[in-house]
Amino acid sequence: MWSTLITIFLTRLVFVNGFSYDNQTAWKKEHTKCKGNYQSPIRLDRKTAIIIGKVPEIAFLNYNTVIGGDRVDVLNNGNTIRISFDQVDNSKKPMVKDGPLGRDQFVMEDIHFHWGSFPTRGTEHKLDGVSYSLEAHLVHRNVKYESFEDAKGKENGIVVLAVPFKEKSEGVSTLSGVVNLLEKVKFTGNETTFHGNFVLDKMFYLKKEKLYFMYEGSLTTPVCDEKVLWIVYSKARCVLKSEMFKFRSLKRIDGEPLINNFRKPQKPNGRKVILVV
Ligand SMILES: [Zn+2]
């Protein structure tokens, strides 16, 4: 009974906040911020980026900490699969600092994914002109702001780490923990938790990773708040064809396949793009 009511509530919530990837030109009409000069995603090209070496390493706090999976929520909100950490103790919440982030600490808000209907379609950022199947976004907010809502659009408010995944027939995928849950969140409003323990870095292996693009942009969904620092890793990880099939079997609120949930590239408008090597 309760679960049915909650599902109805969530479905309405999603619907109220709804936007369509099919009609992205409407975003700019309905939300002025989506017309801004510093929008995301953009095309990232190593030939035109400013290359910088010797940048101190980003510190990943709690990325290797074992978190009880029952504290990690997974939701199909109609536009993506969202993994959230609201139920995780503050002492165990993943955070990033140092490197190009300066002294502030940024706590994990959520992880979500963007994907396409075939292997060369799905990532939001085009890397040297190439699109892959899937892009994960690890969204962090500055701890000096009380909430994500509070941090949005603020100076040093939000940092997103983006990780591309290339579709392969065989290989080693690190996303099986998420993929195994997708059947449980097939429909919009479905929610579940992780099984067993959750260790974030086993999904992304970011600690030793160099070679990332960095630029100032926005959230890639309405209302498109700017002042977001993007760190986009250039090396694509492996996602299996069979796993992408499961992502593509998810459903939107209207029952249609949840696919092609990526925003088209926005104008760079002279922005500096840095490549950290
Ligand atoms: Zn995103």
Q: What would you say this structure looks like, in words?
A:
The termini are far apart. The model is unreliable at 12-16 (pLDDT under 50). The protein has helices at residues 2-16, 25-30, 148-151, 176-179, 201-204, 241-248; strands at 43-44, 50-52, 58-61, 67-68, 73-76, 81-84, 95-98, 106-115, 126-127, 134-142, 158-168, 191-193, 197-198, 212-218, 226-233, 237-240, 274-276. It has six helices and 17 strands. It has a single domain, classed as Alpha carbonic anhydrase (Carbonic Anhydrase II, Roll), CATH 3.10.200. It is of the alpha+beta class.
What is the strand and helix layout of this fold?
Blueprint: H1 2-16, H2 25-30, E1 43-44, E2 50-52, E3 58-61, E4 67-68, E5 73-76, E6 81-84, E7 95-98, E8 106-115, E9 126-127, E10 134-142, H3 148-151, E11 158-168, H4 176-179, E12 191-193, E13 197-198, H5 201-204, E14 212-218, E15 226-233, E16 237-240, H6 241-248, E17 274-276
Parallel strand pairs: 1-9, 2-17, 11-15, 11-16
Antiparallel strand pairs: 3-7, 4-13, 5-6, 5-12, 6-8, 7-8, 8-10, 10-11, 14-15, 14-17
The chain binds zinc ion (ZN).
Residues 112, 114, 137, 220 line the site of zinc ion.
* Shape-level CATH architecture: Roll
Q: Which structural class do the helices and strands define?
A: alpha+beta
| Number of domain units | 1
What series of H and E elements makes up the topology? HHEEEEEEEEEEHEHEEHEEEHE
Q: What share of the residues lie within helices?
A: 10-25%
Radius of gyration: 18 Å
- Low-confidence parts lasting 5 or more residues at pLDDT below 50? 12-16
Ligand kinds = zinc ion
The count of DSSP E runs of length 2 or more, i.e. the number of strands, is: 17
What is the fold-level CATH name, i.e. the topology? Answer: Carbonic Anhydrase II
- Measured by DSSP, the beta-strand proportion falls in 25-35%
Average pLDDT reading: 93
What would you call the shape? globular
Count of individual helical segments: 6
- N- to C-terminal separation? 54 Å
Largest sheet: 13 strands, mixed
CATH superfamily: Alpha carbonic anhydrase
What is the CATH level 1 assignment? Alpha Beta
